[in-house]
Amino acid sequence: MSETSDTTAAVPLLDELAWRGLLYQATEGAAAHLAEGQVRAYCGFDPTGASLHVGHLLPIMGLVRLQRAGHRPVALVGGGTGMIGDPSGKTAERQLNTREVVEANAAALREQLARFLDFEGPAAATMANNLDWLAPLDVLTFLRDVGKHFSVNVMLNRESVKSRLETGISYTEFSYVLLQAYDFVELRRRHGVTVQIGGSDQWGNMTAGTDLIRRMDGGQAHAITFPLLMTSAGTKFGKTEAGAVWLDPARTSPYQFYQFWLHTDDADVGKLLRYFTFLSRAEIEALDAATAARPHLREAQQALAEDVTTRVHGADAARVAREVSRLLFQKGDPRQLSAEALSALAAEMPFAEVAAPGEGLGAVDVAELFVQAGLVKSKGEARRLLEQGGLTVSGRKLSTAERTLAGEDLLAGGHLLLRKGARDYALVRVQG
């Protein structure tokens, strides 16, 4: 877990969540329970896909905040519940995955979750998989010991069920709440877990678990929820025109991830700094003031992008993303780009490899180079742009009088950065 500014340990957890706008609901007595000493708290993640996305970051950060407050987090991967799928927030039946797919997804999620938590020390985190206790259950035992505690009338009034009654909901998804509630029972028995955290859409499932613990074991447990995150425009957080923003760098590159946070609207950036970083209240309020006074500098967005990208992908990936971003959007000097940044650029823009001519770079047909890179359709178009001063190589503007390449145009790793106009880029690597 990376080191950042932190006041969490000095402030009661629910107070910390409250000033950040993260406390939506809590069961009665939750604050007193947390004040009694170290507790174990869990959050569940169903492996319905092979990667978590930024929408999962809020509960993940909730686990991290718990740990930084001295409590012990348990990250639960739903290898069992992932075979069914939570109907909450869904308007239609889920496509069921095979057991092999769910197991592969669960392994991927475990690896991602492990990057955020510390597994050593007095507040060591634990990983769990509910397949361990759900798979051995036989249906008669489950119906007798668990099902008898649930009223169908109450379940029919649950929002996740009521919203699906007209379109239809299978018994499989209807029974999901029983499985999640039973998870809480088993986690309390096996790991001493007494608190569950999650999004506000999970409140009914979570309180079903606290009630089941009381009914089955005569014990007490608590639930804490975070608000569902929407943008100021009323759209669901974490979605772009290209789709979900994933934590897996193979699905959403660190550069694209960095850009997602950098493009945060001024109206949302203060809230997201509170939700997704450990910057102190004073630091965030200073960034709020900077946004109001100097919005064009986007200081808060830069701090947000830097902090979250570092936490998810590491400091090196954040540095490379920052280099690439400054080049493309702040007209940075290409000669300052590191080899890692150039490699990242190759994945974000048109890329081509060309053989070095034996006569040297001066023999390269610049017009043909721009055609090969895909920036122009023909050599004729390239010549017209040369006459207009619209073609640049590695930061040097070309012209009809000066249209040959020179050794100083080569960047790290033998790359050439081509630009047409103000925004159209391509990267070329000269081989040999």
UniProtKB/TrEMBL annotation:
Intervals of motif 'HIGH' region: 47-56
Top-level EC class: ligase
EC id: 6.1.1.1
Domain Tyrosine--tRNA ligase SYY-like C-terminal: 363-428
Binding site for ATP: K239
A Pfam short name: SYY_C-terminal
Keyword Secreted: no
Main location: cytoplasm
Catalysed reactions listed for this entry: tRNA(Tyr) + L-tyrosine + ATP = L-tyrosyl-tRNA(Tyr) + AMP + diphosphate + H(+)
Subunit structure: Homodimer.
Described purpose of this protein according to its UniProt entry: Catalyzes the attachment of tyrosine to tRNA(Tyr) in a two-step reaction: tyrosine is first activated by ATP to form Tyr-AMP and then transferred to the acceptor end of tRNA(Tyr).
Protein name according to UniProt: Tyrosine--tRNA ligase
Species annotation: Roseisolibacter agri
